[in-house]
Amino acid sequence: MQKCFAIVASCCCLLLLCEAALKLPDFVKKCSAKDPNFDDCVFEHAKETIPHMIDGLKKYRIPVLDPIHVKEMRANVGGLDMHGWDLVGTGLRNVQLKNIKIDLKKKEITVEVLVPKAHFQGKYEVNGKIMSLPITGKGDFEATFDDLYAKYVTTYELQKMDDEEVYLVPTIYNVIFETKSANVRMDNLFNGNKLLGDNMNKFLNENWQDVMKEAGQSTYNALGLVIHNIFSGTTLTVAYKDVFDDVEV
């Protein structure tokens, strides 16, 4: 299913490519594919670039990243259905780039980051079982994660578009999230039953590691799709020959 989402997302992004290719922003420094220290060059220049991206770059299809607004997310694992909408996330302004690797031969990109404190809030609806306990509810929620680590890996293809330029097109991706601690609050659980709702919130927070093991990956996949869609749209604004020096197209 994740592969299908990635393919559909990439196809949608291709349909958006209807304007002339842009050049890289002045604050982005290119690295040469022939540089023996290519990985170090990419890492250092990526660190310098991130602060310029946080408030968004509309021309390059990068939305505001802090706060980041997500219209909708859906996740399903076993007998648990989760739906979130009107989501707002903060904390990316303080993101720390831990690693970035672009393998030009394998056509694979790996990015690892750490967000010291990430906070999300919005609307939710949940129905099913978590750790064998029934859970149902619809209302407001908020969640905070300390030292949220994320690893995003995507393969890519080089495709020639209608403008005769070749672009980097992300294809199949995978995302991993880990966190030092998590705290969640879901309002209006069990049709507003305060006793049941308070006990469920307490249970979720006291057992957050087990909860994340059981239900986390499905949620990560949904969040990963948001990341992948943003990246896929961005790479289609600048021709591949203008992303790196000394590349074969």
From TrEMBL:
<protein>
    <submittedName>
        <fullName>Soldier-specific protein-1</fullName>
    </submittedName>
</protein>
<dbReference type="InterPro" id="IPR010562">
    <property type="entry name" value="Haemolymph_juvenile_hormone-bd"/>
</dbReference>
<dbReference type="GO" id="GO:0007623">
    <property type="term" value="P:circadian rhythm"/>
</dbReference>
<dbReference type="InterPro" id="IPR038606">
    <property type="entry name" value="To_sf"/>
</dbReference>
<keyword id="KW-0732">Signal</keyword>
<feature type="signal peptide">
    <location>
        <begin position="1"/>
        <end position="20"/>
    </location>
</feature>
<dbReference type="GO" id="GO:0005615">
    <property type="term" value="C:extracellular space"/>
</dbReference>
<dbReference type="Pfam" id="PF06585">
    <property type="entry name" value="JHBP"/>
</dbReference>
<keyword id="KW-0090">Biological rhythms</keyword>
<comment type="similarity">
    <text>Belongs to the TO family.</text>
</comment>
